[in-house]
Amino acid sequence: MRKLKIVIIEDEAVAAERLASLLHEIAPEISVIARLDSIASAVPWFMNNTADLIFADIQLADGLCFSIFEQVNVNIPVIFTTAYDQYTIK
Question: Which pLDDT tens digit goes with each residue over 44-56?
Answer without folding.
Answer: 999 999 999 999 9
